[in-house]
Amino acid sequence: MLSCFFSIFVFFLAITDTLTKCDSNQCSQEMDVTSIRVLSTITSIDGIQTGDYSFIYAQLLKELLLRMEFDQQNSKNEFINFFKETTELNQNNDMVELDKFGREYHKHSIIWWYTRPGFIHHTINEALRIQDVLNLLRMGFFIQKLHRQLEHISRNSDEVTSTLTVYLGQGLTYVDYGKLKKTANNEYLSFNTFISVNTNYEQAVKNARQALRDGFETAVLFSIIVESSTSISVPFACIDDLSYFDNSEDEYIFSINTVFRIEQVETLKGKNSILHVKLRPLSIRDKHLRQLMQATRKNIEGSTLMFEMAKLIMLMEQYSTAEILYNRLLNETLQTDIENIELIYHQLATIREKMNDTVGAIDLYERTLEIAKSHRQMNDSIFQLILLKIAGLLQAQKKFDAAMERFQEALRLELQTTAPNYRQRSKIYNDIGVLLNEQKRYDESLEYQEKSLAIDREYTPNDHMNLAITYYNMASSYKNMKNYEMALAYYQEAIIHFQQTKPMPITNILNNHLFIAHILKELDRSDEAVQHAKTAAKLLRQTMSDTDPNDQVFIDRLEQMIDSVE
Q: From CA 188, how far away is CA 179, in angstroms rounded?
C-alpha cells in the first residue's frame, strides 16, 4: 500500500507541476476569420478573471493605435519596403499590389483600398486578428486613417433613426465556438478586426453554410441590431459609395473598437452546427465598461504613447515584442532622461526574467540598480524591490551565498526606514527562510519564518495570501525535518487561510491536501490520507478541462490509483 500511495504522490506532483508551469497561450488556427473576445458581466476590476483581461487589453491596444501619431507618407513607404524585403510574397500578385499601393495610394479612398481583395486587406486583418503588434504599428497609419474616414462618414451621414439589422455569417474556430456557447445575455463581445456587415440575411446565412463546407466544424450568424447611429460608441458607416466593389449594396463597416452586448445565443433553426448570436452595439452612455477600462488604463500610464504601448504588450505577455519596443525606446530616449532610462532597463530586466534568461535578467537588474543609485535616495522602496529580484534569481542559480547577501541588504534597508512597510518586511523574512530551508538549515529557516508570521498575524488580514504562504513554508520546513505533527498542523493552517483568499487559489489548496496526505501516510493514518488524496483529486478536476481528453486521462488514472489504495 505504501508504494502505491507513493505512486499517487509522485503522479500528483507531476500534474500539479504541469499546472504551475503551463501558461494561458493557446495555438490559434491559421484561418482567415474574424476572431472574437468575450467579457463576462462583472461589477468591478476586482472581479475580472485572467481570461477577461485579454478583452480589456485588446481594447486598449486598439485605442492606443488610434491615438498615436503617424506620418502618412513615411509610414506608407516603411510599410511597403518592410513587406517587400521580409515577406515571401506571392511572386507577381503581391508585389504588383504593393507597387500599385505605393503609386496610387492617394488616388483612392482608404475604404477602397481596405475592401479591395488581396495582400493589403489580408495582411491588415491578419495582424489585427492575431494581435501582431509590430505589424500593427507598421500599418497603424492605414488603420487610423480608415477609422477616421468611417468617423467622418458617420458624422456626415443621415442618422439611423429606425431600427436597422445587419448580418455577418462566418466560420468559427472551436475555441470561439466554446466562448459563445458559454456566454450569457448582457455579456460584452468585441471583434479583433474591422467588421464588414450588410442587410442581406440570406447571404449571411449562405456564408455561414459555406464556411461549414470549407472545413469549419461550426459557424455563426451574427444579427446586429442598430437603433441609432449616433448612440454607438465608435464609428459605423455605410460604404457603398466608396467600396472597391461597384455592386456593393447596403454594406456597412464597424470600426475596430466596437463593443457589443450579447442579447441572445441560440442554434439557428434547422442548422445544428450554426449558432445565431444577436448583438447590440454598446452605447456611448455605458459607464460600466468605461470604468473597467479606466482602472486597467492606469496600469499602463507612461510619459508617451509608445511607453504605454510597451507596458501594455508586457501585460499581454508578448515579451519578445515588448523587448523590441523597449530597446527602440532606449535608443530614442535622451540619456539625461534618467527616470525613463531606469524604467526601460527595469522593464528589460523583467522581460528577460519572464523569458527565463536568468543571467541576462541579473545583469539588467544590476544595471537598473546602478542607475537608481545615481538619482534616488537609498530609502526609496525601488532598491528593496530590485535587490529582492536579484536575490531570487541568484537563488534559482543555486548561488546561495550571493543570494543571501542581497536578501540581507534588502532587509537592512527595510529595517532602517523611518516608514516601515510591514508586508515587505514579512516577505523578506519569509524569502530568507525559504532560502535557508533550501540549504537544509531548517532551524535558522524557522527563525526567520516565525518573524514573518509574527508580522503577518499583527498587520495582515486573515484573507491575505502572504499569511497562507508563510504557514505553507513553515510546514515545508517541519516536513523536511521529519517533524510530521508540526508539519501537519501548519499545512492545515495554510489551507484555512488559502480558502479565505479571493480568488481562492485552487492549486495551492490542492498541493496542501496532497502534502497532508503524504504526511498522514508517514504517521500510519492511511484512511485520513486517502480522504485528503480524494479531496486533491476533486480539486484537480476543477482546474482541468472537461473537454480535453488528455486531462480526463490524467484524472481517471489518478482516481483509479486512489481507489487501489483503499
A: 12
Q: What is the DSSP letter of 242?
A: T
CB hemisphere CA count around 351 (13 angstroms): 24
Q: Whole-angstrom Cα distance, residue 536 to residue 503?
A: 18
Asked whether the beta carbons of 485 and 509 are under 8 A apart, the reply is no
Kindly report the number of other CB atoms within 10 A of residue 396's CB atom.
14
Q: What is the pTM of this model?
A: 0.83
Cell match 442548422: residue? 271
Tens-digit pLDDT profile for residues 165-174:
999 999 887 7
Pairing of strands 218-226, 274-281: parallel
| Bridge partners (DSSP) listed for residue 116 | none
Between helix 93-104 and helix 119-130 the angle, nearest 10°, is 90
In angstroms, the CA 451 to CA 233 distance is: 54
Q: What is the pLDDT of residues 386-401, one digit of tens each?
A: 999 999 999 999 999 9
Residues 313, 137 contacting (CB under 8 angstroms): no
Which residues have CB under 8 Å from 84's CB, separation 6+? Answer: 95, 98
78 Cβ contact partners less than 8 Å away, ≥ 6 residues apart:
138
User: Using CB atoms within 10 A of its CB, is residue 188 exposed (0-12), middle (13-18) or buried (19+)?
Assistant: buried
DSSP secondary structure, 279-314, as one string: EEEPBTT-HHHHHHHHHHHGGG--SSHHHHHHHHHH
Amino acid letter for position 142: F
Please give the Cα distance from 290 to 524 (Å, whole number).
58
**535: part of which helix (H) or strand (E)?**
helix 526-543
DSSP label at residue 232: B
Q: How far, in Å, CA of 451 to CA of 513, rounded?
A: 26
Q: Contact, 347 vs 314, CB < 8 A? A: yes
pLDDT tens for each residue of 268-314: 877 667 889 999 988 766 777 777 788 888 889 999 999 999 999 99
Rounded Cα–Cα distance for residues 385 and 380 (Å): 10
Which one, of 221, 227, 168, lies nearest residue 199 by Cα? 168
Contact 543/564 with Cβ under 8 angstroms? Answer: no
The SS3 assignment for 354 reads: helix
Q: What does the angle CA 420 – CA 426 – CA 430 come to, to the nearest 5 degrees?
A: 150
